[in-house]
Amino acid sequence: MTKIKIGQVGLGRLGQVHASNIVNHVKNAELYAVASVVDAELAYAKDQLGVQHCYKSYNEMIGNDELDAVVIVSPSGFHAVQITQALEKGLHVFSEKPIGLELEHIKQVVTEIDKHPDKVFQLGFMRRFDESYLYAKEAVDNGDLGKITAMRCYGIDPSAGLDSFIQFAKNSASGGIFLDMSIHDIDLVRWFTGSEFKSVYSLGNNIAAPELSDCEELETGACLSELEDGTIAYFLAGRNAQHGYHVETEIIGTEGMIRIGNAPEKNLVTLYDKNGVVRPTSGHFPERFKFAFVNELNTFVNSIQNKEQSTITGVDGLKSTEVAIAMQESFESKQIIKL
């Protein structure tokens, strides 16, 4: 089978994960080209991954007629324009979340996606491809929990990364903690319930990082939400988990409940010594969702080859972003926001 030739823009921390996966773990795909404004990132692609076509410009890269698809892992503010440019070039598109930072721009991109039904577009909500979440989704769909009544979602980055985020926040905008972090959990709630959000009420603080107040950022954000079908959803996002990278989802139904990742376990090892009983924990998101990142790109390539549309659409990105922006608006106004 002919390999899909992929061009990737962005080779930062997550970009290098994707690039390495394409080269080493994604079947029927070739990392044909990369684009980055950082010389060291281009050197990494050329020297360590063997990429032959390295560009300083995204526009130059997508001008290469040999490309079949692009993988977009650039800063969030570039996504809307780069997705549109790729589609206009006739390329299939995989983009990391979010589609954009402003709703009007996202709506324009969704319209552009709809104009190209022959092109696969997939958004990087990788948790849908994690084995544990897939297991839970099957249980929910089979009715094992009965009717979902409530969901609780935690997403807390390790404290080891807090200082670097503070430095980032002093020079750049993340879009806010709900758009930057809770958007994955928002997508999971929509995915598991099949329902849309009705209202949100948010709170937040910077007790662990007072410096973030000057940057108009939050270290901890929480939100209580109601969905159109009556489901209650609670979200907690943070940047200061002392024990590692903590992602946890609880689904409560009329007939039972499921808890996914209640401890961020690194492996199945348990250490018994003078310190008591110790379980190693995951330290960062590339480790926790290692196989999900591989699975989502394999699914993208398979969709191209099988001429099938992705199950994660532009509308999923739009709806999740709408909710995240409403959460931020609720925090700032101290009001319940209706969607």
Core attributes:
25% strand; Rossmann fold; globular; alpha/beta; 339 residues; Dihydrodipicolinate Reductase, domain 2; 15 strands; seven-stranded mixed beta sheet
Written account of the structure:
- By secondary structure, the protein is of the alpha/beta class.
- It has two domains: 4-119, Rossmann fold (3-Layer(aba) Sandwich); 128-289 and 320-338, Dihydrodipicolinate Reductase, domain 2.
- Helices cover 38% and strands 25% of the residues.
- The chain is built from eleven helices and 15 strands.
- Helix 5 (103-114) packs antiparallel against helix 11.
- The mean pLDDT is 95.
Topology:
Elements: E1 4-9, H1 13-24, E2 29-35, H2 39-48, E3 53-55, H3 58-62, E4 69-72, H4 79-88, E5 92-95, H5 103-114, E6 121-123, H6 131-141, E7 148-158, H7 162-171, H8 177-193, E8 197-205, E9 220-227, E10 232-241, E11 246-253, E12 257-260, E13 271-273, E14 276-278, H9 285-288, H10 290-306, H11 314-333, E15 337-338
Parallel strand pairs: 1-2, 1-4, 2-3, 4-5, 5-6, 7-10
Antiparallel strand pairs: 7-11, 8-9, 8-15, 9-10, 11-12, 13-14
